[in-house]
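User: Sequence recovery, please. Input:
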C-alpha cells in the first residue's frame, strides 16, 4: 500500500542520489576532495564518476521507477535501504578500525548521520508500504 511517508522517503532518496551523481560527474576532483581523495589522473576521475556518478544515478533511477510505478515501491525501498545499510555498515567497521572519528573531516562525519538516517527511513517506509 502506497503511503505518503514512502513517497517522501523515495523522493528524498532519489534527489540525494541524483545530486550525488551529478556532483561527482561534473566536478569529480572537488567531490573526491571532500571525501579525502586526492585524484591523480584520468583513472581516478573515471573511478569517481563510475563509483559515485554511475552508481548513484542507478539508485536515483530505482527511486524514480518506484515513484512512477515502473517497479514495486517496496523494491525501490529495498535498493535504498541496501545502499544506505551497506554504507553505514562500512562506516562503522572503518570507525572501529580507525580508532574513532577524530581524524574524519566534517563531510565524512555528516555522512554517518545521512547514511544511518537513510537506512532507518528506508526500513520504516518499507514496513509502512507492506
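Assistant: Recovered sequence (130 residues):
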Amino acid at each position: 500500500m502506497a503511503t505518503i511517508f514512502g513517497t517522501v522517503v523515495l523522493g528524498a532518496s532519489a534527489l540525494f542520489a541524483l545530486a550525488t551523481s551529478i556532483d561527482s560527474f561534473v566536478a569529480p576532483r572537488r567531490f573526491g576532495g571532500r571525501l579525502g581523495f586526492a585524484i591523480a589522473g584520468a583513472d581516478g576521475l573515471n573511478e569517481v564518476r563510475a563509483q559515485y556518478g554511475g552508481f548513484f544515478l542507478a539508485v536515483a533511477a530505482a527511486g524514480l521507477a518506484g515513484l512512477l510505478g515502473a517497479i514495486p515501491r517496496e523494491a525501490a525501498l529495498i535498493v535504498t535501504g541496501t545502499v544506505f545499510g551497506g554504507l553505514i555498515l562500512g562506516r562503522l567497521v572503518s570507525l572501529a578500525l580507525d580508532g574513532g572519528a577524530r581524524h574524519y573531516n566534517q563531510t565524512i562525519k555528516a555522512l554517518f548521520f545521512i547514511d544511518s538516517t537513510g537506512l532507518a527511513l528506508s526500513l520504516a517506509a518499507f514496513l509502512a508500504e507492506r
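The chain is about 80% helix and 0% strand.
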